[in-house]
Amino acid sequence: MTNDQLKEKISEWVSGIEFPENKQYLEVLVPANSLKKLAELLHNTPETDFDYLISLSGVDYVSHLAVVYHLESTSHKHFLVMKVKTEDRENPNFDTVNEIWRTAEWYEREVFDMFGIKFNNHPDLRRLLMDDDWVGFPLRKDYKDEIKMIER
Amino acid sequence: MDFNIYDFTSFTKWVDNALNSSMSPLLAIIIELIIIGLVFLLFYAIVGLLLVYAERKVCAVIQNRYGPNRVGPFGIFQTIADLIKLLMKELINIKHADNFLFNLAPFIVIIASFMAIAALPFAKGLQAIDFNIGIFYLFAVSSLGVIGILLAGWSSNSKYSLIGAIRSGAQVISYELSVGLSLLAIVVFAGTMQLSGIIESQADGWWIIKGHFPALVAFVIFLIASTAETNRGPFDLAEAESELTAGFHTEYSGIKFAFFFLAEYMNMFIVASIAATMFLGGWMPFHIAGWDGMNAIMDYVPPIVWFFGKTIFVILMMMWFKWTFPRLRIDQLLNLEWKYLLPLNLMNIVLVAFIVLMGWYIK
Amino acid sequence: MGLNQLMFFFLSGLILVFSILTVTSRKILRAAVYLLTVLLATSGLYFLLNYEFMAAIQITLYAGGIVVLIIFSILLTSHISHKFERPALANVIAASLTGLAGSFISIWSIMKFPFNASTEPTLDVNMKEIGMQLMSTGHQGYALPFEVISILLLAALISAVIIAKKGN
Amino acid sequence: MKEVIQDIIIRNSDDYIINMGPQHPSTHGVLRLELSLQGEKVKYVVPHIGYIHRGIEKMCERDTYQQIIHLTDRFDYLSAHMNNEAVCLNVENALEVEVPERVKYIRTILDELNRLASHQLWWCAFGMDLGALTTFFYGLRDREVILDIFEESFGSRLLHSFNTPGGLMHDIHPNFQKRTKEFIKYFRKKLPEYDQLLSNNVIFQMRTKGIGYMSKEVAISYGVTGPSGRASGFSCDVRKNHPYSAYDKVDFKEILDTTGDTFTRYKLRIAEMWESMNIIEQLIDNIPEGDYTAKMKPIIKLPVGEYYQRVETSRGEMGVFIISDGNKFPVRVKFRTPNFANLFVLNKIGSGNKIADIVAISGSLDLVIPDIDR
Amino acid sequence: MNIFKYFGEIFGAIKSLWAGMRVTGYYFIHPGQIVTQKYPENRKTLKMTERFKGEVIMMHDENNQHACTGCGICELNCPNGSIEIITDKITNEAGKSIKIIDKHIYHLSMCTFCELCIKTCPSDAIGWGQEYEHAVFDRHKLTKVLNHPGSSLRKKPSKEPNQE
Amino acid sequence: MNSEYLVLFFLLGVVLVGGAIVFSMFVSPKSTNFAKSEPYECGIPVKSNAWIQFNVGYYLFAIIYLVFDVETVFIFPWGVVMRDMGMTAFIEILIFFFILVTGLLYAWKKGALKWV
Amino acid sequence: MGIKIKSMKNEDFLDNSTLETLKETGDNFFLTTIDDIVNWGRSNSVWPLTFATSCCGIEMMAAGASRHDFARFGIEVYRASPRQADVLVVAGTIVHKMVPILLRLYDQMADPKYVIAMGACAVSGGPFFYNSYSVLRGVDQVIPVDVYIPGCPPRPEALLYGVMQLQRKIKSKSITNPNEVEEK
Amino acid sequence: MIQDIPIQYFLIVSTIMFFVGICGFLIRHNLITILMSIELILNSVNINFLVFNKYLFPNQLQGNFFVLIVVAIAAAEASIAIALFINMYRMYNNIDVENISEMKY
Ligand code: SF4
Ligand code: SF4
Ligand code: SF4
After folding, report:
1. How does pLDDT run across D134-178, given as a tens digit for each residue?
2. Ligand nearest to the CA of E123
3. Closest to E12 in 3D by CA, of B345, B332, D201
4. pLDDT above 70: percentage of residues in chain H
5. DSSP H or E run through B232
6. F58: Cβ–Cβ under 8 A, 6 or more apart, which residues?
7. pLDDT at res. G22
8. D34 within some domain
9. Would you call B158 an interface residue with chain G, using a CB distance cutoff of 8 Å?
10. Can you give the CATH number for the domain in which G102 is found?
11. Cβ–Cβ contacts within 10 Å for residue E87, how many?
């Protein structure tokens, strides 16, 4: 499917979708509450068939926190970037997609570890890379640690 | 062949007489024992050190490198440096471990190998004890070493060592059978269990030649099984580096660890010399019945050279195995023994018995 | 004192001390190791008696077989920190009284009994002789026991396999 | 509706747990595997990572684009060149810079050489995991030849930081072509030896065949890429699917297999080595003349936007996700590293096997731990 | 089990094992294949390639002069702060007060050999040294001052224009 | 006359190991710290104390081994006299082996030789 | 007075001054014959622990491989268990999560033990000195280090050179006065 | 017969060993220890067999063969016993005599 068809299809499925400008590829901004639904549809519908989650990254845009999903379909070879964001820095949370793409389990743990974004219904949400007793979320822009981090 | 210039019997007799004539019999025998003890102690240490050095060099050459070459000429003092270092290294005692057994384990391992050395025939007359059940005795004491390994693994209170010990227990006892049965093939051929008798029976040809096919099969099985029994080569599951870090001796440090290390090499020496004795004629020179000229020439090579030459040959084979093959998994290891070696061995023995019955071996 | 006596006292000393330790030790693996020492010393006695084949069998089967099996099962069933309870005092007293009385009576009767050592010529026990008698079918032949033992072992093997498999 | 693959680990407090790693010869670094044992059998594997998490992504936020390059060397240090290239390509695409043809050719050759070196190292480490100690020395012996070529051109053996946005640091050394060809000739002779020594060995085959089976669905769902994924039939070769550099100019096969066990993963890497040599041979004589770098400003500022670039490293698909706000420092750099996903599948394909199999399986996934932790 | 398959398996196994043993055996009897270089013995002849990155050095000519102007660009470009430039103010013959380099401090212990400093140096004052034997007992010995004591700025940089 | 040699070799082992360990105890440096006396487990503090969940395979092989060991012991005297006795011995061993192999086959069939 | 290392002159080594001060402060300027023998043994048989965390570990492996052949120095036997190892070659980055494990491994090694910090990361944090929140800046902050080998990664020859430096350091010690067991 | 050593010496040793075995049988609750006591008892019997053979009938081998048979039986007994013990352990997680009453077979 071409990007335009995809666009059509996606806006058919869920409301409140935005398509931000992007030079390289199609990008969708999903409202947090329909993330799970869209993900399931994208994965299960034969025409879209996004079965391969390439990467799942957390981003701190200072104004808001976001999670970016890079998706590809191994059969149709099309590519999609899905994004959710939240303004809530204290207690951000999204739905997990780890039942849809298994690889997401660790990616989500990593995002939780680095940004403090929680994922509902995640089977094993612990810190992944840092020690369990680590304080703070290192990849956030406002993370400071005078002792362990020498800044330049 | 009544006359042999390299017969050590007269020499030992002479020592015996000299001692007996000058003192009381009890004292004489004690002094004799002390002399023998010192000789063997020295022998044991030297063989152990040399073997460790040899293995390093052999594996180095196989792997396209030099191996130790900076300590002394060609690095021959390398193992001595290791020895000094290990002697001067701290002995760690583990909390919650059974210290008595922890310290006992190296004793058992070393004692088992010493007991075996007692019966090895190095040359004519150069044998501490010539049992009339010689080979059976060797078979018996070789089964003792595993107890040391089991104790070491259990008493270190570490998971790795326990798994290593249990593995090696299952492995060693299984392969024990194949070792015994493959030796039995030669016993059937020779009709005796006395080591000197077996060697004498090879005066006109080694059993591996005289016994042709079944002896060859027995030899191969013996090589495989004895490699496994000494926890070496592709069968080093008990100390599998990549799985159990150091296996049953994970917690041992310093000289205690060195003894496990040493025992491995001494056991290798022992099984190699058993193989040399049983299949390759021991100290008996290479003889072909009828070719008197060549036989006479062969006689001029001292038997001790023959013995060590053959032993070294077998040792090289074992090193070659070790540095070529990947390690087996525990279930495959036991499969190999119970489903392949043991049935083959039993068949082989029946074959040997049949051949002996029909007299189809080279006489 | 001759060398023979020296050896005998050394070996029997080992046997006595370690057999007592075997039953009194509260750590099970140590008990097994003490038992091993007893068995090895016994085989030393056999060597002293010049029954070399028996001695080697003692080492192979008892030390290398049964004790290994025992140690093996200990490895699988007990933890290193495990220690036996001290047995009840009454139990100990009763047992040791039995033992003492029994051994006293037996030793007394042994000392009493006039053993007259045989004057017959000693048979040179070599393997040939043992093998001949074991395999021969005639008078003083043990061929039948030889075969029967194989059946006994077959039975042992089958039952052990059945028992072990049943646990699964 | 597709089938949903689930393998949630249920931990039990009285499991017999044994730790493999962080210091363990077969975890190739500081991976820690928590194995729950039943006898020799492994009930489940819990990988613990982060023992070499160095915070590279955070560091990138304070570095210029040129400076990021030298950090990318250091996660998958065995495919340093591909990692560099990923960032460079991303920056070049964002700036819409056209790099000279010569650079593309050289990059492709270097990619493949690096892949060869990496696979050689994997081969010897894998052999060592299975107890064949000599493989370690043969593999490294042949690898040294490649490293010599590298050192002549880049001045360093392992981490070369040779790429820079817009091209290369230097031109290749005049000897480069000659020596590469010599190497190919040499290695074509040595590679069959690998087969004789290890691949055809019965013990090796017994140890690896039928162990650690991974189906295509599992591979896709877990995002297992690279040779490990391709062994399960997951056609994930970025070189083929989204050609970059000079890969569209060469003729090569994407090696695929569907068996998906440990032995297939092994065989596939050996086949990839042959294929890499083919690619190099096609390119090495045709390197066009030209500049070794495009004209770049000394301070690079990416236009505002989000950029994603994928390359194929020797372990799988590597992605670089850069978010720029127009400054000389990026806002966020995320590296999608292949090993991260490849390790996660270990429990799925490893549980139910024996300890020795876990070693074999994790060896066949060819893990580089800093690549996971970044 | 099929008895032929059983023996066939055994035979195949032995053949494959023998193939492996041939390889190792070949090397065992061909010690000429040894590739080891004897490092400390061949120190005299062991030359690194000309691009070898051993350490950053500052090139000095025979008059003990170098080309570093103390501009600090290398310090700026070094990703991990391995370079510190300490400048000094002097008055030159013309009476103008100019900035010259006092100490070009280089932390070998931190350098990652990324070559950015050398690439970006406008006056090509620094380059790669071939030294690779750096091991010391004291970490502070690894901090070096690159400009030799008493050295001065080369007057006229009379060399080809910069590559960059 | 052989037992003293055996005891001698036994003592040699004791002397070698004991001597070396005692010597080493005197000359080697000593230091203690908390972690040193803990068991080693790849650098992770040992936690679980559960006992190993062992496998039937481990001891089943030991048991079968014991049975076969006895048989081996019995065959050795046979091996010595095989040459001299000829046919009788051959037939006896065939019977013996037949029974033995039956046992092995039984264990094989029952899956006792399979590692679970 | 120099310490002899085969095939290399004393003057060719760096940092002789530290070695001299070390000897003087240890008030064992005169080494006895026994010291000589023991040090000969110890210095020629330093068995490393297989401990490699990242890139430098690969160069350590390369140093052990055929081309450079660690084994010539008697460093052949890589021990996987810290009980039997003599030298801990810290090859690679140490992050804060790893520190307790490193400490534990170091503690579990039997005396005498030595530490080589290989690579910029182990010496000072190297490429991750600034801006990284999780990297330990030099292992000498937690365990005593005997020899520092800079480089990123150091060439295998550099590692061999470092090993020779370590041998020199071992040879300058006396058993009657072993250098104090550093507490950390 | 052995020079210098009367037959009684051997018999005393074996007697003491026998009764030590009996004591162990009585005071221990652990089945494996009991098995070990039995081995002690059998062993003392074996000594007697051989000693009698050596001292009283030196030209025959009956004692030897009896020992052979005893050893074989001991091995068979030990293997089955241990199979039982381990099975018990798998069921009840310990191997004390008290549990025997609960055994089903
Ligand atoms: S090479 Fe790189 S790290 Fe080293 S001083 Fe230069 S810029 Fe800094
Ligand atoms: S070395 Fe070059 S860049 Fe650095 S201060 Fe000197 S002139 Fe400037
Ligand atoms: S010093 Fe360099 S090569 Fe070594 S571990 Fe650190 S980053 Fe890697």
Report:
1. 888 888 888 888 888 888 888 888 888 888 888 888 888 888 888
2. 2
3. D201
4. 83
5. none
6. B166, B169, B170, C72, C76, D39
7. 65
8. no
9. no
10. 3.40.50.12280
11. 16
- Give the whole-angstrom CA distance, residue G85 versus residue G111: 9
G178: in domain = no
Assigned domain for D220 exists: yes
How confident is the model over G12-48, as pLDDT tens digits? 677 666 666 666 555 555 566 777 777 788 888 888 8
Whether B7 has a pLDDT exceeding 70, the answer reads no
Task: Give the total number of structural domains in chain E.
Answer: 2
Would you say residue B139 has pLDDT above 80? yes
Contact F14 B191 (CB under 8 A): no
Q: Can chain A be said to touch chain F, i.e. do they have 3 or more Cβ pairs within 8 angstroms?
A: no
Q: Is D369 on the interface with A (CB under 8 A)?
A: no
- Residue E29, domain extent: 2-33
Q: Where are the domains of chain A?
A: 3-120
CA separation for the pair D157, B86 (Å, rounded): 36
Distance from the alpha carbon of residue E106 to the mean position of ligand 1, in angstroms: 9
| Interface ipTM | 0.85
Residue G139 lies in a domain: yes
pLDDT tens for chain C, 168 residues long, are 577 777 888 888 888 888 888 888 778 888 888 888 888 888 888 888 778 888 888 888 888 888 888 888 887 777 666 667 677 778 788 878 888 888 888 888 888 877 776 666 666 667 777 777 777 777 777 778 778 888 888 888 888 888 777 755
- Which one-letter DSSP state was computed for residue B338? I
Is A149 a residue whose pLDDT tops 60? yes
pLDDT over 70, % of chain E: 91
> What is the DSSP track for B5-27?
TT--HHHHHHHHHHHHHHS-HHH
Number of domains in chain D: 1
Average pLDDT over residues F65-81: 83
Domain count, chain G: 1
Identify the CATH number of the domain in which residue D349 sits. 1.10.645.10
Tell me the two tokens of residue B282: 């021991």
Q: Is residue E101 part of a domain?
A: yes
Q: Is D134 on the interface with B (CB under 8 A)?
A: yes
Domain contains D27: no
Give the span between the Cα atoms of G17 and G5, in whole angstroms: 17
The DSSP-derived string for chain C is --HHHHHHHHHHHHHHHHHHHHHH-SSHHHHHHHHHHHHHHHHHHHHHTT-HHHHHHIIIIIIIIIHHHHHHHHHHH--TT--PPPPPHHHHHHHHHHHHHHHHHHHHHHHHS------SPPP---HHHHHHHHH--STT--HHHHHHHHHHHHHHHHHHHHHHHHT-
d(CA E32, CA E129): 34
Q: How many CB atoms lie within 10 A of CB D89?
A: 21
Instruction: State percent of chain C over pLDDT 70.
Output: 85
Query: Residues F11, B109: contact at Cβ < 8 Å?
Result: no
Protein residue with least CA distance to atom 6, ligand 3: G121
pLDDT tens digits, residue range A71-104? Answer: 888 888 888 888 888 888 788 888 888 888 888 8
> What does chain D come to in residues?
374
**pLDDT score recorded for residue G182:** 41
The answer to whether position G135 is within a domain reads yes
Which atom of ligand 2 is closest in space to residue E146's alpha carbon?
A: 1
Structure tokens at C123: 């048979």
Taking 80 as the threshold, does the pLDDT of residue B209 lie above it?
Answer: no
A3-120 under CATH 3.40.50.1100, yes or no: no
CB-CB under 8 Å, B65 with E24: no
**Cα distance between residue C129 and residue C114, in whole Å:** 30
Residue D374 is given by DSSP the state -
In this structure, the strands spanning D41-48 and D305-313 are unpaired
Question: Are G127 and E141 inside 8 Å of each other by CB?
Answer: no
In angstroms, the CA B332 to CA G77 distance is 28
Encoded tokens for H41: 């008892």
Q: What is the CA radius of gyration of chain G?
A: 16
**Would you state the structure tokens that stand for residue G123, as one six-digit string?**
């010496």
